[in-house]
Design brief:
Number of helices: 13
Number of domains: 3
Strand content: 15-25%
Structural class: alpha/beta
CATH topology of the largest domain: D-Maltodextrin-Binding Protein, domain 2
Distance between the termini: 45 Å
CATH superfamily of the largest domain: Periplasmic binding protein-like II
Strand order of the largest sheet: 2-1-3-12-4-13
CATH architecture of the largest domain: 3-Layer(aba) Sandwich
Helix content: 40-55%
Order of helices and strands: HHHEHEHEHEEEEHHEHEHEEEHHEH
Number of strands: 13
Length: 309
């Protein structure tokens, strides 16, 4: 039945002051719109997609977040699978068309696409110290002779993805504060890789310096040493301003009861539980807390202050 027919019936009902019938018709229309909306049928079937964005290395990202997704699947009873996106445009399309349900994302991404999410049940990740901010750090080899950020003039640097708050946005700001132009004063730079990739490239002398999250070296030294990287050979020469941690949110088409299941499961993660601790350490997460309107406002202010384009 076409929308114009609904309009005629509704207008006739209103003309005759049949408020009860008009309300019923509006309810029917709303139900039909919901049923025709992207993601509704998949939501009813219990099939859900979750993404961690940005993540440029699918293999490492799967290894990091698969235990968390497995936990969520059991804790919520929902059929959840982990998906990856190559760029912001594809990620935005997935949110818009309802093929992506839940996201653990960089705060910059959240602010940029805030209108694509449900405003309810938003969480902010915690660090292992239960903080809601963290930093990026610039690392070099200890035997490189590089001692301060100005020593990187004419050198090569590996940053994180251009959507990463600590490893690109705050890092770029740090360089500019110290009078170094990334596009003019560095010999070369790249935007790719997770912290593991960056650290390995610095350790192997592929690049002179790299930017990793502040918790990476102290918390993952033993793990990287098992893979052949001796974190003891690396040193931090500068630290960025503190930036907000990741945001968990749901797409607009996700039903409220399923949002509650997901947020409840994430907030029940407990570092005192050995299995939970393994999951959280694997994903570099210290837990989650509810994000208040003030928290989200402060994140938006931070993005505006950094003049992110």
């Amino acid at each position: 039945m076409q929308w114009t027919i609904f309009q005629k019936i509704l207008f006739r009902a209103l003309e005759n002051n049949y408020k009860r019938w008009a309300s019923l018709l509006l309810a029917i229309i709303s139900s039909l719109v919901l049923m025709w909306s992207p993601g509704y049928a998949r939501s009813l079937s219990g099939q859900f997609k979750i993404s961690t964005f940005p993540c440029t290395d699918e293999a490492n990202s799967f290894k990091k977040f698969h235990p968390l997704v497995t936990y969520l699947r059991h804790a919520t009873g929902l059929n959840i699978s982990l998906v990856f996106h190559d760029d912001l445009a594809g990620f935005e399309r997935a949110l818009k068309n309802g093929s992506l349900d839940f996201v653990i994302q960089d705060p910059y991404v959240y602010v940029k696409l805030a209108d694509k999410y449900s405003n309810a049940h938003i969480l902010q990740a915690l660090t292992f110290d239960k903080e809601t901010t963290h930093s990026g750090v610039i690392i070099v080899r200890k035997d490189s002779g590089l001692k301060r950020i100005m020593d990187l003039k004419g050198k090569t640097v590996m940053f994180g993805p251009k959507l990463s708050s600590p490893r690109w946005i705050a890092a770029r700001h740090l360089f500019e504060k110290n009078g170094l132009l990334i596009d003019g004063d560095l010999l070369d730079y790249s935007n790719k890789g997770c912290c593991e990739d960056v650290a390995f490239n610095v350790f192997l002398n592929v690049v002179d310096a790299g930017v990793v999250c502040d918790h990476f070296l102290p918390e993952h030294g033993s793990r990287q040493q098992a893979l052949g990287l001796d974190a003891g050979q690396l040193a931090v020469i500068a630290t960025t301003d503190r930036v907000p941690t990741k945001i968990f949110s749901a797409g607009k088409y996700v039903r409220a009861d399923n949002m509650v299941k997901m947020t409840g499961a994430l907030m029940r993660l407990d570092f005192q539980n050995s299995e939970h601790r393994r999951i959280m350490e694997n994903a570099d997460l210290g837990g989650f807390r509810k994000a208040s309107a003030q928290d989200l406002s402060q994140i938006r202010e931070w993005v505006a202050r950094m003049q992110v384009d």
